[in-house]
Amino acid sequence: MQPRHFITTVLAAAIAITGLTAAKAHAGPDADDIAKVLFGTAAIVIIGKALEDENKKKKRRQVYDAPTRRYEPARDPYNPYATPRPAPRGNPHRFNRELPLACKRDYWTTSGEPVRGFGVRCLSRSGFPTAHLPRSCEREVETRRGYGTIYKAGCLRRSGYRVSRR
């Protein structure tokens, strides 16, 4: 059920219940009536806040996973047994695959798990281009300054990145 549909259903039910429990008009508001109104309003606010927090958690968990299959080059239709040439590798000096050692440290995820990784802010200050790092290695963590993004050290190592010795 979509969150908006759920909220509208809860609000419609609350309005219907308050309409059924309405009594004859009195000369002034009674303490019980005021308490009922405040209790109903507080319940609706608490439910809405809980749904909003749940939606924020779902948005934070979405991470792009890189495809694991590699592209197979097409075979030559005239000579199907010929071995295809390897694809050109491009400029090997296009970007550096050595990560700065100063940026490697331990972080804690939003669920409280310890993770060793490289902070995006530290990498960018060290002059390392973070645009080339794989998105599948990204994690959301809690830092002293709030929430931040890191790249997990083990995932980067498996992707071919090394830690420099300086």
TrEMBL record:
From the record, give the transmembrane residue ranges.
35-51
Location of region: Disordered: 57-94
Swiss-Prot/TrEMBL keywords: Membrane, Signal, Transmembrane, Transmembrane helix
Q: Which residues form the signal peptide?
A: 1-27
UniProt superkingdom: Bacteria
**Protein name as catalogued:** Uncharacterized protein
